[in-house]
Every structure is written in C-alpha cells, then in structure tokens.
Amino acid sequence: MNKLEAGVSLVIITFFAGVQYPFLSGVVASVSVFAFLTVTNFIGFLIILAAFWGELFRLTKKQALQSGLLAAEMLMFNIFSLLGSSGMDPSVTSFALTGYLLFIPLLYFLLRKKVHRRALIGTGAVLAGLLLALEADPARLWDARILLLLIAGFFFALYMVTVEKLCVNANPSILSMGRMFFGFVSALACWTAEILITGGGFTVPDAPGFWNSVIFISVFICGFYCVVQIYAQRYLSAMDAGLIFSTEVIFTLLASPLLVRVTGGTAEPITGFKLAGCAIIVAGVLIAGGVKRGAHEK
C-alpha cells in the first residue's frame, strides 16, 4: 500500500461511516449502549480473527498492551459521545464530535511535531464547511453537553494519533484484533456493572431492525473500518486521516435518498447550505492535502 492507496482506502471506509446512521436508527432506544458495543465488538473480533488468525502466533505482550490502550481510548470516546448526544440536535452533535480536528494539532504540539500552515488553514475551512453542511445552529453550541462531545472528540483524536505512532512498528492485524477483543471485554464489563446497578439481565432485542444494525456495524465498522484505518495510517498522518474522515457528511447526504429505500425513514433533504458546506469541506481537504506527511513531523 502506498500513500494514494491509503487515502483511497480511508475514503472507502468513510463512505461506510457516512451511511451507518440509517442502520443505527434500527437500534431500540431502550437497549443499553454497552450491550450494543458488546455484541458488535465481539462479532467484529470474530471477523478479524477469521481473516488474520495466523498472525496470533506473532502476538507479544507489548502488542497486547498497545491493543488494550486503543480499546480504552475508543471506549472513552463512545461513553462521552453517548452522554453528550443524549437529547442533542443531531447536526450539532456531529459538528461537535468533529472537534477532533482541533485536538490533533494540539496533540502534535505536545508531541513536538510540526503542523504545516496549510493543514491548519484546511482544517479551519473544513470546520466552517461542516457548520454549513450540517446546518448546525451556532447558538446551540453553547449547550453544556457540548463539553462532553468535545471530550469525546479529544479521545478520538488521541486514538488516531496513537494509531499513527503505533502502527509504524506494530503488526496492524494484531492491533486490530486486540482492539476489538479488549473493546468487547471492556464493553461487557461496563454492561455488567450497569446491570448490577440498575437491575435487569443480559438480554438484547430479537427485532430484525436491531440485528440489521448489528450486522452492518459489526462487519463494516468494527471489522472492515478498524483494520483498514490502522493499515492506512502507516502511510498517512492522523491529520490526513482526520481530514478525510470529515467528508463523512458528504456521503451521508448523497446516499440518504438510496438508503431510505432499504432502511425506511425519511431522506435527508439536500439544501443550498448543505451543498455549499460540502464544497467548502472538499476545498479544505484539498488545501491541506498538499502537505506531505513529513511536513507534519519534526
């Protein structure tokens, strides 16, 4: 894989991330998020294990610890995004979670890595485009829950920077399997604690909509997305990956009219503001895309 192929791979998984929301709507509101994470992470682990089981013979204690670190970062992202998105307008939630674009340069600074000026300009353009494309009301950005979403964005930024640092020398297949395995274990532990506190049992719905969501998320997000991202970030920086991921809203808008025929619901309306926002996002990615990976590092 070269840098171009890595970029194309990230665009492909960004497409799947962009079309996941209609499937997530099939998750029953009363289902514990930890139950959903437990099931999807476990299936995702089995998928990656089936594809790369031979790599387990190369597993080391160091790689196991690294996988556990990645799983912990993603668990924190999921918890804070859940707390912050409760009752929040979806457009504001999506915009606030994209705060990871602000935290990546900060983490680079703490790690003494340089960030090219063009990357910062492109990031600013992308954030402005997202505000338009999502038609987020700036007045609602002062909601107290925004802080929780920004914390979630920080953990996602930390995850991407950690992947960038680890995947150069570690085995991406083992990191992927380990992340899913420890993600399953940690989600199961949280689910168990939740049951002990609130009562209930280890049950999940048997409705087709729920399992359609589980299958899509398990295969394309927990399985495919996880592996491709870790492999691709061997050739692209966290900044590059974050900017590509920001185009997710474009795929959501373009695929919405087709997805409603499969999942039901209402198609996402395409307005002039959204089209303008998408154009600005693409422009921002292209501006920052002119920066070579070496320009991000000291």
Give the helices and strands, then pairings.
Elements: H1 3-18, H2 21-24, H3 33-52, H4 61-85, H5 90-97, H6 100-110, H7 117-133, H8 145-166, H9 172-198, H10 208-232, H11 238-245, H12 248-263, H13 272-289
Description:
With 298 residues, the protein is an all-alpha fold. The protein is 73% helix and 0% strand. The chain has 13 helices and no strands. Helix 3 runs antiparallel to helix 9, helix 7 runs antiparallel to helix 13 and helix 9 packs antiparallel against helix 10. The longest helix is centred in the middle third of the chain and has 27 residues. The protein is globular, with a radius of gyration of 19 Å. The two termini are 24 Å apart. The C terminus is likely disordered.
